[in-house]
Amino acid sequence: MIIRILGEGQYEVAERHLDRLNELDSSVQSAADADDETTFAVALSALLDAVRSLGEPVPDQRITPSDLVLPDEHTGLARVRELLSDEGLIPG
User: Which of 2, 21, 14, 22 lies closest to 66, judged by CA?
Assistant: First the structure.
Protein backbone atom coordinates (compact mmCIF):
# COMPACT_ATOMS: atom_id res chain seq x y z
CA MET A 1 0.00 0.00 0.00
CA ILE A 2 1.28 3.47 -0.89
CA ILE A 3 0.58 6.09 1.78
CA ARG A 4 1.27 9.77 1.17
CA ILE A 5 1.90 12.17 4.02
CA LEU A 6 0.98 15.60 2.69
CA GLY A 7 3.96 17.90 2.27
CA GLU A 8 6.40 15.07 2.89
CA GLY A 9 6.19 12.21 0.41
CA GLN A 10 5.05 8.66 -0.09
CA TYR A 11 5.79 5.47 1.82
CA GLU A 12 5.24 1.89 0.76
CA VAL A 13 3.76 0.04 3.72
CA ALA A 14 3.29 -3.73 3.73
CA GLU A 15 -0.25 -5.00 4.29
CA ARG A 16 0.88 -6.83 7.45
CA HIS A 17 1.24 -3.43 9.18
CA LEU A 18 -2.32 -2.28 8.52
CA ASP A 19 -3.66 -3.61 11.83
CA ARG A 20 -1.15 -1.48 13.75
CA LEU A 21 -1.94 1.59 11.63
CA ASN A 22 -5.66 1.03 12.18
CA GLU A 23 -5.09 0.94 15.95
CA LEU A 24 -3.31 4.27 15.79
CA ASP A 25 -5.97 5.64 13.47
CA SER A 26 -8.61 4.71 16.05
CA SER A 27 -6.76 6.86 18.57
CA VAL A 28 -6.87 9.79 16.14
CA GLN A 29 -10.60 9.23 15.63
CA SER A 30 -11.29 8.99 19.37
CA ALA A 31 -9.41 12.20 20.11
CA ALA A 32 -11.25 13.99 17.30
CA ASP A 33 -14.60 12.71 18.58
CA ALA A 34 -13.72 13.96 22.07
CA ASP A 35 -12.61 17.32 20.67
CA ASP A 36 -9.32 16.82 22.54
CA GLU A 37 -6.76 18.87 20.61
CA THR A 38 -3.77 17.76 22.70
CA THR A 39 -4.50 14.04 22.51
CA PHE A 40 -5.34 14.45 18.83
CA ALA A 41 -1.94 16.00 18.07
CA VAL A 42 -0.14 13.19 19.92
CA ALA A 43 -2.23 10.50 18.19
CA LEU A 44 -1.73 11.98 14.71
CA SER A 45 2.02 12.26 15.32
CA ALA A 46 2.14 8.60 16.44
CA LEU A 47 0.25 7.51 13.30
CA LEU A 48 2.58 9.43 11.01
CA ASP A 49 5.67 8.16 12.86
CA ALA A 50 4.41 4.59 12.40
CA VAL A 51 3.97 5.13 8.65
CA ARG A 52 7.53 6.48 8.48
CA SER A 53 9.04 3.66 10.53
CA LEU A 54 7.05 0.75 9.09
CA GLY A 55 7.13 1.97 5.50
CA GLU A 56 9.85 2.43 2.94
CA PRO A 57 10.13 5.88 1.34
CA VAL A 58 9.08 5.89 -2.30
CA PRO A 59 11.78 7.63 -4.38
CA ASP A 60 10.67 11.00 -5.77
CA GLN A 61 11.53 9.78 -9.27
CA ARG A 62 8.93 7.02 -9.04
CA ILE A 63 5.51 8.27 -10.06
CA THR A 64 2.79 6.19 -8.47
CA PRO A 65 -0.71 6.96 -7.18
CA SER A 66 -1.29 6.94 -3.44
CA ASP A 67 -3.73 4.44 -1.96
CA LEU A 68 -4.17 6.68 1.06
CA VAL A 69 -3.35 10.31 1.86
CA LEU A 70 -2.72 11.45 5.42
CA PRO A 71 -2.48 15.03 6.67
CA ASP A 72 0.82 16.37 7.95
CA GLU A 73 1.54 16.85 11.65
CA HIS A 74 0.62 20.52 11.56
CA THR A 75 -2.92 19.95 10.33
CA GLY A 76 -5.40 21.07 12.94
CA LEU A 77 -8.23 19.06 14.40
CA ALA A 78 -10.93 21.00 12.53
CA ARG A 79 -9.34 20.25 9.15
CA VAL A 80 -8.75 16.58 9.94
CA ARG A 81 -12.39 16.23 11.01
CA GLU A 82 -13.29 17.10 7.40
CA LEU A 83 -11.10 14.21 6.20
CA LEU A 84 -12.34 11.61 8.68
CA SER A 85 -14.85 9.04 7.57
CA ASP A 86 -16.74 6.62 9.77
CA GLU A 87 -13.65 4.41 9.51
CA GLY A 88 -11.13 7.13 10.41
CA LEU A 89 -8.31 8.23 8.13
CA ILE A 90 -7.43 4.65 7.23
CA PRO A 91 -10.33 2.57 5.93
CA GLY A 92 -10.54 -0.99 7.17
Answer: 2
Helical axes 18-33 vs 37-54, angle rounded to 10°: 170
What are the residues whose beta carbons fall under 8 Å from the beta carbon of 72, sequence distance 6 or more? 5, 6, 7, 8, 48
Beta bridge partners of 70: 5
* Pair 28, 89: CB distance under 8 Å: yes
SS3 for 5-28 is ECCCEEEECCHHHHHHHHHHHHHH
pLDDT of 40 strictly over 90: yes
- Model pTM score: 0.87
For 80, which DSSP code?
H
What is d(CA 88, CA 32) in angstroms, rounded to the nearest whole number? 10
